[in-house]
Amino acid sequence: MGLDEDSLDYHREEPPGKIEISTTKPTNTQRDLSLAYSPGVAAPCRAIADDPDDAYKYTAKGNLVGVVSNGSAVLGLGDIGAQASKPVMEGKGVLFKRFADIDVFDIELDQEDAEDVIRTTKAMEPTFGGINLEDIKAPECFEIEETLREEMDIPVFHDDQHGTAIISGAALLNATEINGKDLEDLNIVFSGAGASAIATARFYVSLGAKKENIIMCDSSGIITENRAEHGDVNDYKAEFARDVPEGDLADAMEGADVLVGLSVAGIVGEEMVRSMADDPVIFAMANPDPEIGYEEAKAARDDTVIMATGRSDYPNMVNNVLGFPFIFRGALDVRATEINEEMKIAAAEALADLAKQDVPDAVVKAYGDQPLQFGPEYIIPKPLDPRVLFEVAPAVADAAMESGVARSELDTEQYVETLEARLGKSREMMRVVLNKAKSDPKRVALAEGDDEKMIRAAYQMQEEGIANPVLVGDRESIAATAESLGLDFDPEIADPANGDYEAYGERLYQLRRRKGITESEAEDLVEKDSNYFASVMVEQGDADAMLTGLTHHYPSALRPPLQVIGTAEDADYAAGVYMLTFKNRVIFCADATVNQDPDEDVLAEITRHTADLARRFNVEPRAAMLSYSNFGSVDNEGTRKPRKAAEKLRADPTVEFPVDGEMQADTAVVEDILNGTYEFSELDDPANLLVFPNLEAGNIGYKLLQRLGGADAIGPMLVGMDKPVHVIQRGDEVKDIVNLAGVAVVDAQQNE
């Protein structure tokens, strides 16, 4: 099937469409319903009647945007009517929710007259926190937006105008930085003179371009003062009329620095590109096919052509989803009365800055593992980059507060943490640990320091103040890789082959000489095996913690630190723990990586260490010893182990958390079972620390929870070691390394 058939199947699959309404409060009991509706709902109604601002406190208004269209200019389909536009408006709602956690009602108005659209939209102000106008033809769209912005007290934003302007504006800021030109000196040509072209030209002027350097062309050619005087163009086009000779697009492009295409496919030829100034910038944004193809524009010249399109299959995609969800997020969260020019500029500058930062592995993978590094092929972030929310929304919120249109104030640093929580519990939990790490960063030895991911992780650790990384590996190789990645930092490097580390070999020999190792073998291991080198470094106190495992199998990566650093004084065993985060729940799973068949003593020890780990995440542990039996329903050697472990822990006066078992997994996590059938349990609430009876069960269990339960997994985190060591999984992403470095730093803080 083709794309059209696939799309029709996608949209008609039950339930039809792309959005639904879900409840945010419990509705399981009669009391729940009496609170949600009559008679309890009268209380917030009265409160809002007394103070209309309380609508933001007691209703969803503050996170609800109306996507309003009359279907008069839908994508490239033109005036197809209100009802036919509904799939697009639903899609807009999907993007709002997916990228910024904003709820949407799509509103399709069967109204052609601008005054009718204005009147209807204005009447809906009590419902919404903001209005996103969509797919309304020019010039009516200008009148509608301008009037609504003046008469409504909530943000009104016509994305077809401003979205392209903001995203391409960010691209233009970076393009001029790359080609060394000044924005105010650019000669800019527009192919197209519709709503998006006019709004984009206006925005470029706000960014610093000069209006007198802009030439705009419509289907009849260059918009000149002569054409404006003879009434050949409307008032909006006349704003950019120039006192220049008549001509067509080809004439306008001669000597131009920038071409902005917002018109039709194939209108620009290679010869026209060759007529432009040195190192030209071409934004060919007609959809689905640009004014000139990417390959054609690049092939037309020998110098640097910085090219952007509206397509995802080429570099530098100008996509409005980089703007509107995050602009509204920031505007809603400070209850802005409008989205003004300062907020739009802040969004563009934040996007431009983000393109210069190291790109997360998940984003690179989403785009086919193509290199993404600031330069002519990467001047704007990718739409799937989750960091856009944390950069653009705070920038917009700050601009709203500084420009005086915000009705509430917020702390930007705390606001970023709130935004992270919107994207998942795992980010919220990791923020707890990373904030602790930043309060007192420690030295973390990265055993595989010449690996590209480790170098990028070290850069982020240092940049964010999470840790003081020490890259273990070849100095020249590390420096060359950092330079090739465009990372502007001077990392600390420990090169085992070119440094004064004889004492490390001697120390390893002292530790392992009665384990069959000779002095020369110890020296050789320290020089050639970075895991042994980093382990001795930590054991000697020259580093506070260690990370390894990126390029090794877990057992081989764990062996050196176990041999050199060993377990803590109160521990005989190490264990691997995963933290699984669900929408409203956090679960710690142990042991998932180390102990194959633990007895009751090992299970008890694992539980104690995992409880300590949970507290580092500000989680008060409630431990369940898992089995296929409930409190003696089956009695054999296998079920006795977790039962005895639970008894041992309860008898220990130093254990200050509830623990019970043996119990089945659903008993441990379902409140109705735990407190209904087994009301005698030591756990008053469902367990958040699950101790599996053996390695096989633990590994299977956490992976099923992660994959089928939709949980995010952080780990494995190694507990029970004398000094902080974490063995990451082969193939982990940079963010996983940084997260475990944060955990290691907090471990080291606890050990002081």
From TrEMBL:
Cited CDD domains: NAD_bind_2_malic_enz (cd05311)
Cell cycle keyword on record: no
Annotated Basic and acidic residues bias: 8-17
Name listed for the protein in its UniProt record: NADP-dependent malic enzyme
Similarity-based family: In the C-terminal section; belongs to the phosphate acetyltransferase and butyryltransferase family. In the N-terminal section; belongs to the malic enzymes family.
Keywords: Metal-binding, Multifunctional enzyme, Oxidoreductase
Domain Malic enzyme NAD-binding residue range list: 161-401
Coiled-coil parts of chain: none
